[in-house]
From TrEMBL, chains A, B:
Its cofactor is pyridoxal 5'-phosphate. The keyword Mitochondrion does not apply. Gene3D superfamilies: 3.30.470.10, D-amino Acid Aminotransferase, subunit A, domain 2. This is Aminodeoxychorismate lyase.
């Protein structure tokens, strides 16, 4: 039985929540645009997979119940052109002895509605992070509540930069603190493999699936700095911004062939954004 | 200005706390024995170092204010021989845009009192974990709220085992999910180095400092399975149990020379436990 919390629901036991204590849970952040919520099935699948991996009893059925409640509360209706964001945190709830989880968990589901962040119009600049990516222990890039690496990387985002590019232990670029990395060259899309990621974004997954319809071949393989420089375009994806072209990382200026227009247009049509 | 929460203090904005959202904070768990609280200065120093590393404005002065309040509430007085445990969680509080921290944070300090867990009387058995240790990004073994690796390792603790031994990426044993690892041989104490640890326990730090008074030499160097087998004793430390000898890890039976008696006796005298 899930405990639901909508914004400021009082809750006498929030202070012992295992999400707060250990980051023992997962979350999703979903864009709600005038056309409707974006990529909800992919968000659902990642959240439910995360709960399954952690052994938290929150199922696709619980998601459906949530979705129905979201509809009733009007949270799936965008009141402005820029839309808004809904967030669902599912923690294992309170209980257990130290790190050991309780035999029967009562998950806590926290629902938050907030304004849409500013979406970049053109290409963006990135900072380079000193914080390496720690791949998700599942190897599946699940969006757990353990996001301190991303918080530390975000701290290193210089003024005017969109995000910070994080690297693996070999110094190869892997992902942004809040975005996945792609390079495009000669109609081949390359992106680092799933097992190397902290978070496998839902937009990343969608784009990999759409690629054949765009006449693009896909390679999931580690990306080098050299490959970045020799690409037709470097871009980042996430479910709020879609795909954003990168013009500069730190001091490195990247190619600017406007090769991304077709992909952006496709995403826009596909998602009605 | 810190927001203090004692057990079930109502708090309308707990659901947007960055500790819950991202594990953006640190914590300490302190034993309170009939003789008094155990190793409080070391707990304070680690928590304050963690806040400094994360840029959370919680100082030694805030700790002292907390300690004074703990005294007033009687939380530092053990009502039974087994004592109790007090826990302090300090998160960055609410606010900021996504992972980016707010310019001025208002930390949330959550205070919890709970029963002392069962302390093993004799030697213990351990499970071996599939989950590798991710060293703390600071290289200092700070006790952040990102503890999902430890939760997953604890899940793998077999019935009747005290803890699960986690390994580094070379497969060498590093630490328990809730304890640090030591081996003793020919009056030399060996323990994995600070930079390799997820958490540098306060009891580990104390024991390293006390070693010369026990006539022991200290080596901070990676520990091998072979070294475990050839030791006089293998033991785990944490601030609740002190030092506990390990008799078995998975199928590996360890030496049992009772070489730990002197160390246990010293800890007991030093801490009055």
């Amino acid at each position: 039985m899930v405990q639901w919390h909508w914004s400021s629901t009082p809750d006498a036991s929030w202070h012992t929540d295992r999400g707060l204590a250990y980051g023992d849970g997962v979350f999703e952040t979903i864009a709600v645009m005038p056309h409707g919520p974006v990529l909800q099935e992919r968000h659902r699948d990642r959240l439910v997979a995360g709960c399954r991996f952690l052994g938290i009893p929150f199922t696709a059925g619980d998601w459906i119940a949530w979705w129905s409640e979201l509809t009733d509360r009007g949270w799936l209706h965008a009141e402005s052109q820029s839309g808004h964001v809904i967030k669902l945190i599912v923690s294992r709830g309170s209980g257990g002895r130290g790190y050991v989880a309780p035999d029967v968990a009562r998950p806590r589901a926290v629902c938050i509605r907030s304004a849409m962040p500013e979406i970049p119009r053109g290409s963006v600049r990135l900072s380079g992070a000193q914080i390496p990516v720690s791949p998700c222990p599942s190897g599946l890039g699940l969006k757990t509540l353990n996001r301190l690496d991303q918080v530390l990387a975000a701290t290193q985002t210089a003024k005017g930069c969109f995000d910070t590019l994080m690297s693996d232990h070999h110094g190869r670029p892997v992902e942004g603190s809040r975005s996945n990395l792609f390079i495009l060259r000669d109609r081949v899309l390359q992106t680092p493999p799933l097992r190397s990621l902290a978070v496998a974004g839902v937009m990343r997954g969608a784009l990999l699936e759409w690629a054949p319809r765009l006449g693009l071949r896909v390679i999931e393989r580690p990306v080098t700095w050299d490959a970045l420089s020799r690409s037709d375009a470097v871009f980042l994806t996430n479910s709020l911004v879609g795909a954003v072209q990168v013009e500069q990382v730190g001091c490195l200026t990247l190619p600017n062939h406007n090769a991304l227009a077709e992909i952006r247009s496709f995403i826009s049509q596909e998602l009605g954004v």
